[in-house]
Structures are given as structure tokens and as C-alpha cells.
Amino acid sequence: MSEKNKYPFSSEKPLEYKRVDEFLRIFSVMLESTNYGPVLDTYSRVSMHCSRCGSECMLYSVSNDPKDIPCYRSSLLLNIYRRHFTAWGKIKNTLLGVRAITESEIDEMIESYYHCTMCGRCTRYCPFGIDHRLVVRLGRYILSKMGIVPKNLQVSVREQLQGATGNTSAIPLKALRDNLEFLEEEIEEIKGVKVTFPIDVQDAEYVFFAPVSDYLVEAETLMGIACVMHEAGVSWTIASGNYDAINYGLFYDDGHLEEIIGNMVKEVKRLNGKKILIGECGHAYMSAWKFSPAFADSDEYPIYHILELTSALVSEKKIQLDPTVITEKVTYHDPCNIARNGRIVAQPRNIIHAFIKNFIEMTPRGDDNYCCGGGGGTVTVGELKPYRMDVAGKRKVEQLRKTNADIVITPCANCKKQMGELISHHKLNIQHAGLHDLIFKAIVMTGGNHDK
Amino acid sequence: MINEMLMFARGPLFVFCSTLMVLGIIRLVVILVINLHGSIKNAGCSDITYRDTVRETAIWMLPLRRLFNTSPVFSTVSFLFHVGVIVVPLFLLEHVLLLENGTGIRLWNIPGNVADTLTGMVLITGCILLLYRIMKRSGRGISSFSHYFILVIILTVFASGYVAASPYNPISYTGMMLCHVLAGNILLVLIPFSRLSHAIVYPFIRLVTLSGWCFPYGGGKKANNKIFGSEQIEI
Predict the structure, then answer these.
(1) For the complex shown, is ipTM > 0.95?
(2) Tens-place pLDDT, residues B13-39
(3) CATH class in words for A166-315
(4) B38 within some domain
(5) Which string of DSSP letters, residue by residue, matches A277-305?
(6) Which chain B residue has the Cα nearest residue A57?
(7) How close does chain B come to A270, measured CA to CA in Å?
(8) pTM
């Protein structure tokens, strides 16, 4: 028996035998150890499958496959819950011999739960307020304990929590230091000002955590951030013990989520920092902002996204952006994890309007935006690329085409990767960039506000 | 015989079903409140925004501004259906009198012609919803037996009540009324014990969702311990 062939992505050690028994056993443990029980109990009672979520889901709107309707996706797990973990389900099992889960149901869940990008648009439009992301996440959580988790996610988390480098891209500290030195030289060469990337500064106002992949592939984003900090005289530091904001636990595992947040807060404590600053990343901000109070057992470190800080600095006129530098037509993509809850929608626009004159909005946008198609960790899964390009990302491609823009601002590491692949796959005549990439080009370096 | 059956359905059976419904609703709400309290207490849910939750719930109870976003026809049909399904059973004169006789509580009642119009609206919109579930691939894909059954029972209650009260009743009043009362009794029992419980649970659902996002501290380790026998596992 080789179940491996059925999986839509490669896993390191997926459980191949007795999957049904194991699924039920783990499901039962999850109900005891987490808060999912009342959620499933309520959702399974009330879900009327009105299909309103389907009319708002970008996946279903493209695939037209009923299996992509969010309430159908959720029902895969909710039906199992109803059959095996409710009193009525147990009575029916005994009296009527209701069927047990089948192997094919497990396979369907695996595929379905990793097609969903957990963008949350369905929840916004559900008349009941059912959050299908929660159900998808629990499904992934249970499957991950059976070893069924995309290899890339697992390898990244392993390196971050148990590896020598402590970050998802396995960048050693020495390489990070070399890279930052190189970026400092680049800034000096381009801007004519010596700007430093501070490491391990005690008592800094902000301890900065970027998605670590930015240190490899998004140099301009980091240089933009460094210039903003330098120019505004913000006290900040990168922490040598932990410099990765990525938290894939958000997508499939409570334990990983908690541990990664714990490590982040531990590092802030070590440096006696005051606030946590997250770089241009959606899920990293969401996981830190939402879960650090509960998981790190501390409310003492307020969480800020870099766009919040930069927007405030723009409003306070602590940085100056030259409005003549960016002349191209620019649009803005709202990453789901910072925009869906309405937290970071106005701030990037405040920055954009300060120096970009030729700006066009997408429709829909803000908290109503379409996902880039690579959310929920799916962008890391190579095997899902065809689905991400032709189904999940199709609405975003249509949006980009309609704007006829030259540049799409994408202030999220995951979205950037997906956007780059979409642009290349669909041969779009547009470039993607982080907002701080453009800020880097436009910022006027006056020598900094250190003494102001 | 049929008269006796009607008397039984209107009498002891109705009392039994109503009692079952009330007890079921109490059970439902008590379980929900206990679960919610446990969840919120379990995990430091410091960011639950009660005011926003109540506001969002209230907005969706009268979603006039949201009907026309993407599926205006379906949303309007569904909205009109719900208006009729809630208003007619509660405020029809005959039902108001029934309640007054049984409990002494007198509710406001709607005029007969309004009740007839709303009933017609429920029948038309209910049939559209049923046809959607039968005819459309997406509707079939997401519908189970209970979705069809609940709609059929609701349509039966409204259609039989309408016909029984109509002067053009092709069948006997007693027979049609028996059908109405029996289907109504089934509906009463279904309210707390089926998907119809959304009528009761609705005000709590958004709060349940928020509490679901409050993951308890140490929950992951606890789960690992129970699954693998160790809090720390090799990833």
C-alpha cells in the first residue's frame, strides 16, 4: 500500500497505515487540549450551507468546483466531528451503523485544506460569522500530527525551532552580518549616507524582526527600512539570537506557533527592548500581534508592523519623501493577514499618497481584497504551483491587469513570492516591490534626526 | 378518527413537542454558555471585541446593505424567506390566540392579508431555495439530507396552513389542519436539535469564532504529550 502517491505535496514521513484510526485519535486529543471543541460543536449545528461564502471565495469563483466552496471544505471535518464526537452521532453510530471515515475522505481533506489559502474572505461574508479558516487550520493541525504536512513547511519550522541557525532560511549569523555590512555599503553608495543595521543594541525602542528571506532576496526592502529608521532617528535593533519573524505555526500547529512567538519575546527581553517591530510580512505580524499576549504570557511588548511606524513617521514629517522620484503608475496589494481585520489598510495609503502621484487602487481592496493566491503557507509548496497560478491567483491577475499599473506594491514576503511567480507565469507587464523598496528610492537623506 | 387525531396533535402532542423544544433550547444555550465561558477562561482572550461582535451580529440580522454585493438574487430571496418564516408563526392571529390561551401571554398580531402575503412569499422563496439546492451543481454539492428535509418541512407547514385557512381548500379543513399541526410539531422539535438551531445560536456564533482563535497557552505541548507521549517532539 503506498499512500504517498495520493498526496498533493511531498511530506517527509506521512503515515501510511491505519490513517482513519489515527486521525480519530488525534482529533479526540485536539478536542481535549484546545479550544476547538465549542467551535466545531456550534458550527456543525448551525452551518446551513447557504453558499454565500462560495460567491465570495476566489477559489470557487475560478474553479466552479463545489468542493472549493468554503462551507463544503469545512463540512469535511465538521461531518466527522458530528459522526464521532457528538452524543447524537454516537447514538446513530450504534443504532444505525453510520459509516466511519474512509481513506478517501482523509485524502480529500489533505487536498482541500492545502488548496485553501486561509484568506478569510469567506468569513467576512458569512451571515453567521463562521470562520472556515479555523476549521481548515484544525484539519491541517490533525493531519500534521500524522506526518502529513508539506515538506517545505516542516523543514523550515524544524530549522527555525531545532536547527543550528534558528531561522527558516537557515541563514547563519555570520552570513547575516556579512549581508548587512554589504547592504550598508550599498546604501552609502546609493544615498551617500552611512546608515547602519544595528545588531544587539540594548534598551532599543524597537526590536526588529523581518521575514528572514528578506535578508536574502529583498535587500531594497531592508535598505528602505534602515533609511527610514536612520532618517527619523528611531532607536531600533536586530537581535542576533533570533532574526526571523516567519511563523508557519499560524497555518497548522499551535505548538510551533507558541514556541516561535516565545522565542521572539525571549529575545526582546534579553535585549531589554520596548516594542516588537515586524517587517514587511503579513502572517508574521498577524501571529505576533494576535498571539503574543496569550502565548508569551506578556502584554508588555506592543507589536507594530513597519507600515504602522513608517506611516506615523510620515505623518509627523520625520522623514521626507521626494514625490518626483516614482513616476510610474503604481497599485497596492493588501496582504490578507494585515488588511482583512482592517488593522493595516489606511497606513500604507498614507505613505503612498505622500510621494506617489500616479496611484491606482484595485477593486476590491482593503479588508475586502482578494488574496494573492499564495496565502496560508501554500506559496512554499512547490507542488501546488499550478493551482496557485491558474486557480488561486487568477483573480489577483485579473485585478492587476485592470489597473494597468507598472508597479504593484506588495508589503508581504509570501505575497511577494506569489506575485513574482504570477507575473512571470501570466507574462504581466508589471513589477512587484515592497513599499520600502520605493521608499528607499524616494527618501531624502538629510543626515538623520538623531539630534532632533 | 381524523378529528381525534387532530385533537391529539393540537393537544398533548403539541404540548410535548413545545416542551421538548423549550428544554432543547435551554440545553443548547446552557451548553453554549458553559463552553464559551470555559474557552475564554482557558485562553487569555484579551482581544475579544465584544462591541464589534454585537455590532456585526446585529448588522447581519438586517443585512439590507449587504444583500446586493455579489449574489443579490439569492441573498434577497433568502432574506425574504427568513422574514416570513420568523414573522408569520410568531404573529399570526391564530397563533397569538393559541399562545394566549396556553400561557396568558398576548403578543401583537399581524393583519390577515399581511400574513397571507408573507406566507405566499415564504412559499415562493422557499421553493426557489429548494430548487437551487436541487438544480444547481453547487447547491447539490453542498446540500445534505437535512438541508432538503428542513426546507420541505417548512414548506409543508406554510402550504398546509395557507390551504387550510383558504376558502378554496380542495381537501377537508381537518385533514389539511392535521397535516399543518403535525408538520409544525416536527418543526418545533427540530429547532433545537437540528441545523434550525441557528435561529437560537445565531447571536453567539461570532463570539464562538473569536473564542476559537484564542489558543490556550501550552495547548500544543499538551496535545503532543497526549499524542506522542512527550511535550517536545522532533519536528
Answers:
(1) no
(2) 999 999 999 999 999 999 999 988 888
(3) alpha beta
(4) no
(5) EE-S-HHHHHHHHHHHHHHSS--SS-EEE
(6) B70
(7) 22
(8) 0.94
